[in-house]
Structure formats: C-alpha cells, structure tokens
Amino acid sequence: VPELPDVEGFRRSFEHHATGRTVRAVRSVDAILLRGTSAQAIGRALHGRTFQRPGRHGKVLLCPAHGPVLALHFGMTGSLEWDGQPHAHDRLVLELDRGVVAFRNMRRMGGIWLARDAGEVGRITGRLGPDWLDVSRRELDDVLDRRAALKAVLMDQTAAAGLGNLTADESLWRARIDPRRTARSLGRDERSALYRGIRRVLRDSLPLGRVPPRPTWLTGVRDDRAGRCPRCDERLRRATVGGRTTVYCPKEQR
Ligand SMILES: [Zn+2]
Q: Which of 3, 151, 172, 189 could covalently link to 164 via disulfide, CB atoms 3.0 to 4.6 Å apart?
C-alpha cells in the first residue's frame, strides 16, 4: 500500500521521466477513479502542456503543467509505470514527447483530480493536515490533541498526511508505545520518542521509496503469523485499531 515513502518515490520517478516533457495524448482514462473531472477535461487541459517539477502532499502526487495540475492518489495498489507496455490495470496513460507514463491501479481505490491552476489545488488537498515531513515537534502536540486511539490518529490524513499502516506501526514500535492508547494521553517524553520514531522511519524509507522489510524492522517480520519482535524476541501481537490490522510488541509497547 503506497504510503509517504512510496509516493515520494513516484514523485522522484515522475520528476526524472516527465519534467520538461510535453503531453502528446491522454488515453485509457478510468471514469471510476475520476474525482470531479472527466476524461475530456483531462485531455483538453493536458494536451500540448509541458510538465513542471512534481510535488507531493501526504499521499497525493501533484503534477503541474504550466497551468493545470494533475493530482493522483494511489489507493491500495496504485503505481506509476514507465515501460510503455499497455496493461489491463492502467487507469490513466499519458503519452509524452518522449516516453509514456501509466497510472496503474488494480483495485481502483484512490483517485485522479484535475485542478485548473495552482490556486485550485487546495480544493484537492485542503482537507489534509500538514505533510508529515513538515510536522515539527511542537506541531506534533496539535496532531495528538485528539481523543481517538493513537494509531488511528497517526493514520488520520486530516490530522497530518502521509503515514499509513506500515509507517505508523513501525514508528510506534520504535517509540515503544502501545498503539491502542488515546493520542492525548501521551506524556512529554513519549511524544518526543514518537517524533523521533516517525522521523527515523521516514528518513530511512524515503531513499528506498518504500518501508524496507528488513529483519531488524517490525516491517520485516510483521507478515509472519508467528513473528517475533526483532528487539526482544517476544511474540508479536495483532489488534485492530482504527479499522486496520496493527502489529506490536506486547512486552515493550505497553
Ligand atoms: Zn519487543
């Protein structure tokens, strides 16, 4: 599932392949994924336009083209593909003056938006909280000033945007904090530990474009039903928090 590090990877690949390239054709637009726009509108807006450097807010990729801005959310299974090979799960294909980019998305969650200009981008990202890379230690206190379970708050994109199931669990495990606790209940030291955990997980994952399933990380063992904590060897436990499967170490994350 694409989270902040993955979408940042897509952003980098878009920057590398598409910046300075001009759209020659728009095809294979999947109406199910369109949000407040149409295939015709996307075609009209982007045809002949040249892409600028892309941006990202949380899990949303923003692709400005000297006026219109294409925005993509990758849902559970989305990715960008540059091989130029048509695929049954292509939901938007842009032929450029050099190369082809396909927004591929098997499960058709996420979305495709079109802003007429940069000023209209707020219509797409306005409900999102600040990007997690921009959240300061002091702003973390605002994010945590909520009654919901901590794990649910970390994944609430309106509180702060970009964390998902893997990054949230990994950060909480680093910080040795029980994901089921109320966000507001964290003490000062716990908040600092959580902040360091989030920064560390994002910093280490960003260059790789994903949360690495290293054996020394929770992510490396979480899919194993009999998985053990890489730090203390305790048998990992599963719980449902905020509607998502949460993996944690019951010994260290009290
Ligand atoms: Zn442990």
A: 3
d(CA 250, CA 206): 28
> Are the C-beta atoms of 29 and 91 separated by less than 8 Å?
yes
105 alpha carbon, distance to own chain's centre: 14
The label of the residue with tokens 């695929």 reads 87
Question: Over the stretch 98-115, which tens digit does the pLDDT of each residue have?
Answer: 999 999 999 999 999 999
Sheet holding 90-96, edge to edge: 23-27, 90-96, 100-105, 78-81
What would you report as the CA-atom Rg of the chain, rounded to the nearest whole angstrom? Answer: 19
CA of 157 to the centre of ligand 1 (A): 28
Cα of 176 from ligand 1 centre, angstroms: 8
Confidence at 40, pLDDT banded by 50, 70, 90: very high
What's the pTM value of the predicted model, to 2 decimals?
Answer: 0.96
Q: What Cα–Cα distance (Å) separates residue 68 from each residue in 65, 212, 230?
A: 6, 34, 47
- Ligand 1 centroid, distance to 178 Cα (angstroms): 11
> Would you call 203 helix, strand, or coil by DSSP?
helix
| Cα angle, residue 8 at apex, residues 90 and 130 outer, rounded to 5° | 115
Q: How far apart, in whole angstroms, are the C-alpha atoms of residue 36 and residue 242?
A: 28
d(CA 69, ligand 1 centre) in Å? 45
For residues 108 and 42, the answer to whether their CB atoms sit within 8 Å is no
Say how many CA atoms lie within 13 Å of 151 toward its Cβ: 26
Enumerate the active-site residues.
Answer: 2-3, 59, 244
